[in-house]
Every structure is written in C-alpha cells, then in structure tokens.
Amino acid sequence: MHQVERAIFDLRRGLPVLLVDGESRVLVQAIEGAAETAVARLAREAGTTPALVLSPHRLALLGEVGAVATARLPLPEGGGRQRLAELAFGPRPEALPGRAELARWRRALQPAERADRAALALMRRALLIPSALVARVDDSRRAAVEALVAEGTLLAVAADKAECCPAGAPGMLKRVSEARIPLVDAFDCRFVLFREPDGLREHVAVVIGEPEAGEAPVPLRLHSACLTGDLFGSLRCDCGEQLRKAVTGIEALGGGVLLYLAQEGRGIGLANKLRAYTLQDSGLDTLDADRTLGFDEDERHYGVAVDMLASLGIRRVQLLTNNPRKVAALSAGGIEVVSRQALYGSLNDHNRRYLSAKAERAGHLLDAVFNGHGEGPGRS
C-alpha cells in the first residue's frame, strides 16, 4: 500500500509512475496537469508509442456505444496536450477537427490489460480525470527504466495493488483526534477525526449526545461533503439543507452520529465537480455530466463508514437517508439498518433538474419532495 500512496501523489504532481505486472512494465502519466512534452517524454523513456486509456463512459461519448470496459486508444498524430485533453475530458470531442480520423482511431481500440485498469484506478483515487497516457516499456529500454527506479527518479508500483486502490484500505482507517464542539442546533457534540492510510482523505464523525453503542439502533446520517452546499448554501443541490436537518433531527431523536465523509461530488472531488457543473450548464443532467468526464454515476465507497462505526462501537442504526444504496452498503458491511428515515431538502428552480435525476435515474426516494410533502422528515 505504501507505494500506491506515493504513486497517487506523484501523479497529482504531474510525474509519471511505472506499473509492474509480471514481466510487463508500463509507464503511466495523468492527462490532467501533464506538460506539453509528456507524450514525447514517455515515448523516449519507454521506447514505444504511448496510447490513451479511457473509461467505458468516455469511450461511449467517443462513439463506442455500449462500451463496458476500459480500452486503449492510439494517439492522434501530432496531437498536442490540448487535443489529448479534449479527447480525455473535453465536453464535445466529436466536434474536434478530423472526425473521420477519430473514427479510424476508434476502430483501432485495443482491450485494456491490468496495467491499463490500474492506471485509471490510480487516477480515480487521486481525484484526477479517469484517463491516462500509457506506454509499454520496450525490452531495449527496460534496463534504463529500472535504473531510474533504482536511483529513486521513478516510482514502481505493482499493478494488482494499484487496481484495487479506489476503495481505500478497509480496516486501516486511523482514529486521529477528537474534541467537544457545541453546535447551534446540538450543544452536546463531539467531533472525532479519522484519516485514511494514503493521507489524502479525512472523515469526521459528529457524535451528538451520548448514543448508546448497545442493542438500541443509533440514529445515523452518512453525509458526503459538499463545499458549495454545506458551506456556501448553493441552490444547485439540497446538501446543505440536509446537513442541517440531519443535525437537528438526530438531536431531536435523543442523540446519534453524523458521519461527514470526504466524498465531494459523489466521490469525484471538487475540481471535477466544478467541471461537471459547467457541463450541466450546457444541458446535461448531473449523472450524464459525470459520465462525460469518464466517471461512473456514483464513485463513492462506504467501507470507510463501516470502519468508523466499528471504531465507535455501533452495529445497529436508524439511517437518515433517501438513498437505498447507503442502506445496502451498510448492510453489506455488517451494520444492521433497523429502519430508514427520509431526510428532505427544499425544491427550487436551481436544483429541480438535479433532484429529478437523482430520483428518476439513481433511485433516490424523493416522491414526497416532488409531491409537495417534503418539508419534514418521514419514516419508512
């Protein structure tokens, strides 16, 4: 895991890393933040022509209807960094010059190997666009590349370890610090901070009152961080309103826990969330905007929530949510969800399309909101 953690930060800094899969050696470079010379550098170091690895959702946008797997796309001749960025995450790659050439590239798609899948897994974990430049290391360059690894210039990572990194490291969450912090709507509160092994994400358990970690179900809210809604009161979502209602609701129930999870933008990070907002302004809904960038409709993982509850000694909960996926995730992690309580925000002209997409396409239980009965919590 240690090498994977280092690789994440190297990629975020715009540096290449080496993925090792048996006898195969593959140089990987993030598209986002790459220098103009990145393609030439990879080609020189690897001794082969780099390719572009794209997710199924991005491939579908390029014309591969029904794409279900990651694949490699040969690079366009003479394509600079800007053109690569358009192919990797531009809003309308079909409008690029040379559409016929793009069709030829698509016909040259090659199935992804484990190193390709691992490359995109690293990008997701690093909160970067899920696309990557990859170059197989030729036998003639292998000794030179391994010399770079030996001298510490280049980091080598096992592809199998990198491929499973998006879910973090289950069971390795660290409980770091805690303090009592009175809130306006819940005076008796304790904040407990947890840190993931790679140090990239920190999550907070807000313990309200003194919930008993026994047989009685503990009122619980899993809340994914939303800087724009939680802090600035954005009208494009209902997150901030749900956060505040969760605190008052848990207080009214006699105490419980709110897990504030560092999963901005359904797990794609703030930078990509803002990119998705720009795409939404052009007419896409929230799910299609994420898919256009190459992401799944929901990139969140709730294993961290299970680990946090285990640390707090909580095994049975009364979950405040409209999202059946959260119920399923906790149940799969061994947490008994005794009941579900709905938690609604308000409908407005700015968030109507967002909430509609969550209800109609992501299965969120929001009928009461659209029927005008979503002002308060409900039980099911």
Provide structural commentary:
- A hairpin with an 8-residue loop joins strand 8 and strand 9.
- The protein is α+β, with helices and mostly antiparallel strands and 380 residues long.
- The strands form two sheets. Strands 8-9-10-12-11-13-14-15 form an eight-stranded mixed beta sheet, with helices on both faces. The protein has a seven-stranded mixed beta sheet with strand order 5-4-3-6-2-1-7, sandwiched between helices.
- Helix 12 (270-281) packs across helix 13.
- The protein has helices at 2-12, 38-46, 56-61, 81-89, 99-107, 114-125, 139-150, 159-163, 227-231, 239-252, 264-267, 270-281, 286-292, 303-312, 324-332, 352-362, 367-370, and strands at residues 17-21, 24-30, 51-54, 71-74, 110-111, 131-136, 156-158, 174-180, 189-195, 202-208, 218-224, 256-261, 316-320, 336-342, 378-379.
- The protein folds into two domains: 2-167, DHBP synthase (Alpha-Beta Complex); 174-263 and 300-379, 3-Layer(aba) Sandwich (Rossmann fold), CATH 3.40.50.10990.
- The model is unreliable at 376-380 (pLDDT under 50).
- 39% of the residues lie in helices and 21% in strands.
